[in-house]
């Protein structure tokens, strides 16, 4: 089995910075890529089973999170963080590659979330 050391390095964070108002998390990776992810986006796309389910058809569309805040960030070993949100959600473990993918795919993922809200008659508020 081989691994791509450059891909692993690209997924290693250099800096995590929580916005002063706790509405966003900026993550900068060793290769210089940086993403600012809103608390809403992190919450509604949480990698937790509570949101993602155990199969793609089980994914939950989480409404009403436009104003959610990140209250705390907890390290999970040296490979992830576990944010605590002010709505009580705290079960998502965001590994570095997950955060990288969320940053790179934010436009498509958040667009799909907005479409799902509309289809289900739900709101961000």
From TrEMBL:
Gene3D superfamilies: 3.30.2020.30. Coiled coil: none annotated. The keyword Iron applies. Keywords: Iron, Metal-binding. InterPro entries: GBBH-like_N, GBBH-like_N_sf. It comes from the Bacteria. GO terms for molecular function: metal ion binding. It holds the Pfam family GBBH-like_N. Transmembrane segments: none annotated. Residues 17-100 form the Gamma-butyrobetaine hydroxylase-like N-terminal domain. This is Gamma-butyrobetaine hydroxylase-like N-terminal domain-containing protein. It comes from Azorhizobium oxalatiphilum.
């Amino acid at each position: 089995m081989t691994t791509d050391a450059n891909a692993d390095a690209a997924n290693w964070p250099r800096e995590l910075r929580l916005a002063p108002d706790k509405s966003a998390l900026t993550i900068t990776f060793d290769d210089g890529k940086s993403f600012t992810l809103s608390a809403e986006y992190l919450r509604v796309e949480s990698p937790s089973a509570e949101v993602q389910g155990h199969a793609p058809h089980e994914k939950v569309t989480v409404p009403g999170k436009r104003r959610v805040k990140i209250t705390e960030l907890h390290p999970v070993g040296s490979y992830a963080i576990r944010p605590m949100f002010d709505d009580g959600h705290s079960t998502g473990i965001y590994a570095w590659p997950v955060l990288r993918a969320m940053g790179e795919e934010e436009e498509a993922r958040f667009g799909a979330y907005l479409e799902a809200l509309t289809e289900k008659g739900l709101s961000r508020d």
